[in-house]
Structure formats: structure tokens, C-alpha cells
Design goal:
The complex is a heterodimer. Chain A is of the alpha/beta class. Chain A has eight helices and eleven strands. In chain A, strands 1-11-10-7-2-3-4 form a seven-stranded mixed β-sheet. A two-stranded antiparallel sheet of chain A has the order 5-6. In chain A, strand 8 and strand 9 form a beta hairpin. Chain B is 37% helix and 26% strand. The longest helix of chain B is centred in the C-terminal third of the chain and has 20 residues. An eight-stranded mixed β-sheet of chain B has the order 8-9-10-7-11-12-13-14. Chain B has a six-stranded parallel β-sheet with strand order 3-2-1-4-5-6, sandwiched between helices. Classes of the chains: A alpha/beta, B alpha/beta.
Amino acid sequence: MTTVRWTTAAPGALQPDDAWLRSLADAGWLAPRNGRVVVHVARSARSTLVVETARALTAYLRRTTDAAMDVIDPGGSASAWPGVGWIDLATTERVRIDAVCLRNGAMVPTLWLEDFLLVTVTGVAPDARYGLAGILAAQADLLPDAEHEDLDAAYEAHRLLAADLHIACGTRRYGAPDSGSWWAAGSNDVTLERALATAAGVAPATLPAFRHFARHELMTSSDDISPGAVALEQHVAPTGTVRAARARTHLARLGRMVREDVGLAAANLHRIPQFIERRWPGLLPFGKGGA
Amino acid sequence: MKRIRFGVVGCGAVSEIYHVPAIARCEAATLTALADAVPDRAAEMARRFGATSVADHRQLVGKVDAALIATSNTTHADIACHLLEQGVHVLCEKPMATTTADAERMFAAAGRGRARLMAGHSRRFNPNLELAKALVAGGRIGRLESVGAALGSPYGSWPTRTDFRRQRNLSGGGVLLDLGIHLIDLSVWLGGGAKMLRYEATDTLDWGVENDAEVELELADGAHAKISCSYTHGLNRTVRLRGSAGWIETSVDGAPDVTFFGRDSRLCRRAGAQKMAVPETDPYTRQIEHFVDCLLRDRPFLVAEPEVMNGLEIIERCYAVARAA
């Protein structure tokens, strides 16, 4: 079974053809749930190609289903999406969910308590935090403070918020429209991200997100489930840049934790004399047990 | 900002530990005067909280805009009626009354005095139960099918100043009226109304009032509730809500989380049952803030009159069944 479907188009093409979208529908990936489809246009690596791909998708779904259609587009505006519902996550109510990785929990939009087909459409770009920012970075954007806790937020977003279908798109050479457009789709976020990394010529296991995810779950190989993959050029940030960014993030995180712990310790300093008095009555000259 | 001048009638443990500090914390309220059957007790608490003490509730009239009543159960109605008829708004500790007739008398007095009356069902102000209610009302677990709730601990394991709960003439009933009322109220609130189906109780401690009780209720839309309360042993203090498409479990007492599973929720479809965190806040403070806010903005109370009457009707029916048996 093919778990990632690729397609390409000539330079300048901004939308995938209907045949490819139909193949996604034939795979059962575009079946509305509860009569509703929500398309998430990712903010990270957002481009005209990404927006036009989402537009082609919504147009296709409107032609082929009678599902209610909503768009989440944090990088866009409601006026850019006539005829479809607009969801502004910035003003959507959220609920705090216990999270393995985030000590204060994950703030999940209450929208995720509802039932609908969710499709995430994202671009792919070199990124200092991820090496290659694709689906996992797009999902992490759904959680507030993703910048501060990037890989932890990415893992929690993967665990809690992942879409039913993920579509990534870009140009063969990053930032070069004349190199031709490509699209890849899959129902599993990790599988698609691995396929993208492999297509970009990097071993998935060397990317920070996969190393981080491997602490929590088994990472399967996608070597033989991505036929027709396109060779992607310049989609991965240089190793040195990624390492430096990871080191900066790590230090910033340590700094935050130290500040927080020092604050908590300072707030409890006044308890120390009481503690000493309880454990060793009379030790302190001003304690009740003293002379 | 207009502030509500608050009086307190009854300076027992619940007032000292919860209500009076909550009023003191409320920015829109001023703790003005306290009354108690033991004048020294009222004077001592008034000193501690920066208020004045008065000889009895009648002297609150003209000094306060609203009063909290936290006296022995059977005295609530007469005190409340007097204050309400004089135009003093009343927040009354649960059980608001020990009979439906008394409750009707209290609401009628409120009407005559153009004052407002709310029953102090404090559990509703726990953020975890508020979230559970929102999940049920939002259809997140489908149609509510059953409620299971328990609340109990050996008598004496919580602070009390008087022993009125063991004296029928002051308490008006036993554990059902004292603790069970919380669970009945939650069932009425969550289930949209309730009818009593079965009641069983025992008085193993020989107090003349029940020490253990179990009630089954039929809720709106055919849902079923089973509640247990005890003065003799610890019960798990949880409420479990089962629906046609999911379930919720949380603490009756207020806890920082609600465990939720919704079959039709994206979140649970992806990641299974989830623990939702809520802020740990004092329900008594939120209850006072709500009461004051409703007075200042002329908004309806969260605890509505028909729900209060429904809860008391159930208890009355339970006691009628016990008497008949």
C-alpha cells in the first residue's frame, strides 16, 4: 500500500491537478467526517503555492461533497476565503490537556473536541530548529508557545492534534519556482515527514524532531512506501545551523527552568526557620524551643 | 465600583474556614457584620476579619445589602424570610430548607421583599464540575445515560463547631440532607431535572437520622443516577458521567482535572481518554463572586429556583418513603 502519494507539475503551476486530488479521495483520505471538513493552512513555510493548494482542495471538495467547509489560516484573513467558514484559532477557546512533554499541559482548541475531517496543507522549508520544517512544524504551530518549547510542542501536537490527511508542497529547488512544483500527501504525519526528509537527501533519524519523537514512540521506516518521490534540493538547513539553534534552545530552556526554580525557592525561603525548628528544636536562638 | 455590604449569620466552621474569607477576598463585597447564637463567637470573628458583630440577624437589616446564612439547617427558613422581606438578598448554605414548604415560603418572602435568594450549592462552582457540565451540555459524550456519584467520610473527619447534624430538630435530616444534597443537586443540574426512584438508608450510629444513604434517580431523557453518601465510611468522592458516546470522571470535591473520553471527539479519536486540567480555585470564593455579580448586574443565578425545589422534593420524597417503610 502506498502511504505517501506524490505528484509534480510544470514550473509556475500553483495547484495540483484534479487527478491527483481524485487519487487521494479514492484512497479514502478525503471522506468528510460528521459532514464537515476543516482545512488547516499552516503558517510555517506559508507561500502562494500552499494557499493555492488549499484553495484547489476546498474547490475539489465543494464539487465532490456537500460537506460543510472551514478553513484555519493563521497567516491569512477571512476575506481571502470567500464561501468557506473561517476559524480564528487566536480567539478560539482552549482547554488545558495533561501532556507528557509540556509541564504546564497543552492548550488544545476546544474545536478538537468535535468531529470533522482535518486536512493540513503546508510548505516545506529549511529551518534551524527542525532542519527541515514540514508537517511536524505546521502541527506545532497549533499550540501556543510552540516557539519556546519547539520539539516538545511538536511531539504533543503530533500526539494530540494531527490531521487525518497531510499535504506538503513546494518547488523542487527551495525558493526557485522555475524548478517545478511538487505535492506529497499522506495520512500519517510522521511517515510523510520521513518521506520528505528522505526526498531532501537527509537521513530522517538525524533530524532533531525524529530524534526527539523516538524518545516517546517507535519510528518506523518509510523506505518502500513513497514511490515516485521527487528529489528536493536545498530544503534542509545546514547541520551547523541546526546544532547551534538546538544549543541555543537548550540553553534558553535551562535558563527558564533555573529562573522558575529560583523563584519557587525564593518563595519558600521563609519556611526554612520553621523547618529547622521542627527538626532540631532549640537550634535557632529565636525558635520556641530556644532559651 | 459599587460594593455589596455583606452580613453573615452563623459563625460555625464553614463560615470561618470558607465563607467569611471568601467574602473578604471578593473585591465587589465588603464584610460588614456578623451574627451568631453565641455573641462572643461573632465578636471574635468580627475582630479577626475587620467587621462588626451584631446580636442577631434582625440587626443586620439596614446595615447590609446581602447576607449569608450558615446556621443549623432548620433555622434557615425563618432567618431568610425575615431578611428577604426586609429587602436583604440572601445566599443560604445548603440545604437551603429542610422542606419544600419552607423553600416556597423563602422564595415567596424574596418576592415580597424584592430581594433575591440563592441556595449555596457550592460544588457547582468547582471548575472541574463546571467543565464536566460544559462537556455534557455541549454533547461531547452524546446523550447522558447515567450519573454515578459518591460522597462520604466518617463523621468527625472534617471540622465542626457544633453537633447539629446529629440532632434532628436542628438538622432536619441526616447524611442525605447534608452531603447527599450536593449529589442530588449535581444530578439535577447535569441531568436537567430528576425524579426519585429508590431510596435506602440506615442509621447504624443510632442518631435518629440516617448515617448512610443511597438514592436512585431518573433524570430527564431517561438517564439514570445512583448516588451514595455516608457519615460512617469513606466513599470515593467522584462523579462518573456516562453518555451514549463517551464518559467523564472527576472529583465531587473539586480537583485540578477532569478525565474525558468522547468517541466522536477528534482529540480522543487520535489520543484516547484525556485528562483536562482546570485551575485550582476556591469554589466558595467563586460562589460569592457569582452571587455578588448577579446582584450588581441583575443576572440570573446559576442555581435556579426550580432546581432547588427539585432537589428538595427528591429529599422529601426519600424521607416519605423511609417513614412509610
